[in-house]
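User: Okay, second chain of the day. Same drill as before: sequence in, structure tokens out.
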Amino acid sequence: LAGGQKFGVRDLRNVLERASARETTSRVAVGAIAKQLLSEFGIEIRSHVTKLGSIPPEPAELSWDKVTLIPPDSPLNCADAELQSQMIALIDDAKDKGDTLGGVFEVIAKGAVTGLGSPFSWVEKLDGRIAQAFMSIHAVKAVEIGSGIRNAGKPGSEVHDEIFSNAEGGTGNAKTDSDSAFPVLNSAFRRRTNRAGGLEGGITNGEELRVRGYLKPISTLKKPLQSVDINSKQPSEAAYERSDVTVVPAAGVIGESMLAIVLANSMREKFGGDSIDEMKRNFTSYLAEIQKY
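Assistant: Same drill. Structure tokens below.
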């Protein structure tokens, strides 16, 4: 309706179809290329469903290792088999009632080096860029970085991630496998917690990047809500064309791509170069410097 009023059209499908989430297909395609670039620098990105509808009461918190164990054919991309079964039952119930469900997905990036983004300009702060990218995903109405929502109700002593010396090398985010070209990202420091979600002051701090997207239930219901006929202005039920019950698992895939695009852009800004080899040389030189700090 708002789009019809804005553009002066009375066939609201002209707005509806152009605002469709089908638009995100191109983002996922670009995200796949961005992931290839990031993989050259040891950065991996995964997503998982942490809450669907009312299940569980609070979004699930899982380690990177548990998320990577989710099988490719998982119906909801949820790491907890019992929770997933409950979610499926909830979806079936909502379908029978002609209703829809929202939920929460989390995207994790492991291996991002310290220093992407900027602490100075508001347009360069990486958390701001990530939040905008996630909020642009259809039906996402809130974005959380780290445990930001819960942090708002706690004292600072229970929120901030304490920093410790790490003389042995590596952090919770560092890739330590022998096949990695960049096995240690931050050799001097580590954090025992990651409530900040890998971002401090608008820049990456070397820990895992953790971003959650909160989705409202999609608005097209088989059991329509009350609306108004735009011509007669008389009460009318909302039109129904087609609808999924929930889009949370699919939104996680889109979220992976959006985070990959933002990180790839940040990597290009930071390390530049006219070829991947030149970019890697700049990256390697930077790693050598921060490991001396």
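Confidence is low (pLDDT under 50) at residues 174-184.

User: Thanks, on to the next one.
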